[in-house]
Amino acid sequence: MIDKNVFRNLSYGVYLTTSYDENNKPVGCVTNSVMQITSEPSTIAVSINHENYTNHCIMKNKKFAVAILPETIQPSIIGTFGYQSSKNIDKFGAIRYHYTNKLPIIEDACGILICEVIDTMETETHTVFLGRVILTEGYKKEIPMTYRYYHETLKGSSPKTAPSYIEEEQKISTKTKYKCRVCGYVHEVDGELPEDYICPICGQPKSAFDKIEETKEVTFS
How far is 163 from 31, CA to CA, in rounded Å? Predict the structure, then answer.
């Protein structure tokens, strides 16, 4: 038997992996499986789901950048890059960014790794891109966000395309809660959800939330 909760004790960060498509449009997605492989030459690996548009773009242009997110990052940025597709929207429209080596680089990172793809490995659901680091920038002495911090402090969940996705366990709710259908964020409130409420993770309005009744519906751990 495999208890997938054990995987939550592995060390994960929260990153944005960015690239560009055939029209030079900036693309990107949230990734949490990024690791350094070698120091000299500097090499990292990043795992991206086959369904992510960013995966296809990196496959074509053989370049990507990894932005290390700090704990102070706006949660809405994680929601935009984690739960929507660069194929359908401009994820960079509301954030500060610049270009380095044609790659879109967000300003609010605490470190940037710019890479050229030197190899790939395919799994059933993900591509592992092996990248040679050709440039770094934006180092800041901030606390990098970990997946544990995102999950336990921000109360965020992983999209189904994430390597660390775990199907949540259902529990009987003892309070009225509202769950976002887009990102899975659960908000607890006494009474009704305010009309002007906006999801702090993905920016969706009240209409994207389902009410979870006391003792009748379930909440998620």
Answer: 8
Domains of the chain: 4-152 (2.30.110.10), 170-220 (2.20.28.10)
Contact 148, 161 (CB under 8 A): no
Query: What is the per-residue pLDDT for 155?
Result: 62
E strand or H helix at 115, and its extent? strand 112-122
pLDDT tier, 65 (very low <50, low <70, confident <90, very high otherwise): very high
Judged against a pLDDT cut of 80, whether residue 135 lies above it is answered with yes
Task: Determine the Cα–Cα distance for residues 151 and 9; give it in Å rounded to an integer.
Answer: 12
Q: b or e along 31-46 (b: 16 or more beta carbons within 10 Å of the residue's beta carbon)?
A: bbbbeeeeeeebbbbb
Count other C-beta atoms under 10 Å from residue 154's C-beta. Answer: 17
Burial class (CB in 10 A: 0-12, 13-18, 19+), 96: exposed
Judge contact between 110 and 59, C-beta under 8 A: no
Question: Global pTM?
Answer: 0.73
